[in-house]
Amino acid sequence: MSDLIQILPDNVANQIAAGEVVQRPASVVKELVENAIDAGGNSIKINLKDAGRTLIQVIDNGCGMSVTDARLAFERHATSKIRKANDLFAIRTMGFRGEALASIAAIANVELKTKRTEDELGTHIVISGSEAISQEVSACSDGSNFIVKNLFFNVPARRKFLKANSTELRNIITEFHRIVLSHPEIAFQLLHNDSEIYNLPASHIRQRIINVFGKSMNQRLISINTSTSIVKLTGFIGKPKNAKRNLGEQFFFVNNRYMRHPYFHKAIMQAYDKILPPETIPPYFIFFEVDPQIIDINIHPTKTEIKFEDERAIYQIIQASIREALGKFNIVPSIDFDEDNSLEIPVAGSSADIEAPMIKVNPEFNPFEANLNYNPFDGEKTYNPFDEERRSFESNQFYQEFKAKTPPQQSGATKKAPPEKWETLYEEPFKRESDEKLSQAKIDRENIPDYFQPQKPPEEFIQKKLHPQEQIQKAKNFFQLKNKYILTPVRSGLMIIDQRKAHERILFEKFINSLENHQGIAQQTLFPQTIELNASDYTLLQVIIEDVRALGFDIREFGKKTFVINGTPADIHNCEPKELVENLLANYKSNQMDVKLKIRENLAKSLAKASALNYGKTLSNEEMSSIIDQLFACTTPNFTPDGKAIISVLESQELESRFK
User: Of 121, 146, 339, 361, which has the most beta carbons under 10 Å away?
Assistant: First the structure.
């Protein structure tokens, strides 16, 4: 029997390695740009065609490569970053494995033009599927120019399962954000289909964040700066009121390398505890400076998972730093008593006689006994604004009869006692007429001031009085628990309905119907609102703009990365148009993880989630009744578009068993 174990050919081994290193076009962009940074370039240009499917080009002005280095760079485990195993514990460069170029060349057509500054001519290499096609001398500029064409041309299964261009482009932009934020000293340019998406000049980190995420970000940032013997923390966190419901503006960087770290993310969320709106995540851009010997980068080929030697201590440092920054933001600035221009507060001496201000009042003043001949410009007399009403009331016949029946006040009394039976002045007319002593009194109501007129009961009071059984029965049908659940009795027991999820299901089916029939009705806003989006959201909205309009939005492009909103769907109430569009895009991006979800269904689902009734809103009986009626008119009333339960029934038997 012959031997079974064989060494795989290099091209097969490279394709296997490419499965981990190159997952999508964004992975190619990441690896090539990181190589350009390690080469010392201060200006990097990225050019894309069809979201990287057709072309990915990365141009830098770095050190370039010699003829030998250019050919050797495409071999597996060929790298200039490390020489021995101990170098793994002192890594400062972005790459070090030596697998990226070999993996990319295994599943694409690759061209490289590179030249060192000291050389007169450069090198032009063409590789396809790990096979070298040509290598020749070429006249080119200093640095390197990588061209990757027809990604996954020899792995059709991988190419088939690439997502839509809009999705792949957003993945590239996400990787682009992670790189440009960690290297603000480098100028970057990103183009897609000959259209410029980003043009970022070299700047400091705060300006780079503003250039990437928009000018509005400048007012949302709170700086942090903490130095310890373990780690140095710098960067920015967001104000609690600007927290969003989706991820996207949360970044950790260790030694200028992006990383994911759920444990440290938890530390940030606990530092924001009880000051964030519900179900929101604050933005943060936090940079760690640590000794490379206390971290391990060599965990995954993507190099985004990093282990720390003492994570618990760093966890506490993060919490303390963020709470300190939030405290500085929330408290009133302290007074510097050493400042030259500080206010001088005089100290009263023992001889100083300070009198408290006095208010002169007349305890004998009676507004009903003031001088009737009052001149408003005569300061010596007292003005009474109720004189005219008083004279009108005293001339009334009922008042004269009532006054005659009241015993006179005794002399020497310091305070007048109220007349007997004064309450009858405020009783209902039919009660006064039933009184035997006042049955003959005829009241001229037109002469009594408005504030003495008996008030007419409100309309709803009359209805309850006329139809008490109907009103009580209606009030018992629905009950709102904690402004979150609607409770109503049914034959089998007690039905509990989640009000937000129910409204989400109702809106979802309305929006699906609007998209199918293109009958979305827009409610025009009083004042149009402009919304400035980042590059990722801008490109996404351009792709789905027609379906967004079919939902009922009146929205159009208004300048670079800006849209103007003139109207929103008529079915949505009490929602800010700008916030509604932002939540729509955020939910749409999070829903794209479901491959089976169609574009229109995703859009309807996202808008329903963004505009559904929030918890905490008090509902009237009519509103609860309307929600229940519309819910049971839906095709699937029991579940939300996400598959979450809307209705739960507490059986009568279970209730009885609890009391037994």
Answer: 146
